[in-house]
Structure prediction request, 172 residues.
Amino acid sequence: MQEQKLETCCFSGYRIEKMPFLPNDTAAIDALRSALAQAIANAAAQGYTRFVSGMSTGLDLWAAETVLRLRDSLPVQLICAVPFDQQAEHFPTAWKRIFNHCLLRADQVYSLSRRYYSGCYAARNQFMVDQSSLLICYYDGRPGGTAQTVRMARQAGLDIVNLAERQLSFSE
Prediction:
């Protein structure tokens, strides 16, 4: 199991509505997705083969799609960590399609709870950190789930690659 942890990377970043750009800003989205692809390729070059997505809109699903796309040329696997069944029930239609496409093509899917409960996202974040030795994130200092995951990753000693334009100190 320890060997798998050394080969596993997880993702954390903002949902689409919390990104520091508009949901229709294709230039910003394309730039972030390009940086994400490069970070995944760099991690794969360092021996990471398992990539865990929390499957929320925004960075999580972009990361999952990117892993699936890179799987054609790199020895990488997509692991989906779904916090609860029906996570995508209230996603906009386009995001539901991406979510379902990624689930169907994933190498492994973990559904961590049958139903939503207060704290299920934190439990999902802890699960991802516990499985990993690397976190690729988009974190610009805002409070919330990404900040929580970065804190968990730091406490667990994970290496962290932050894709936010403004690189911040992780001391809080």
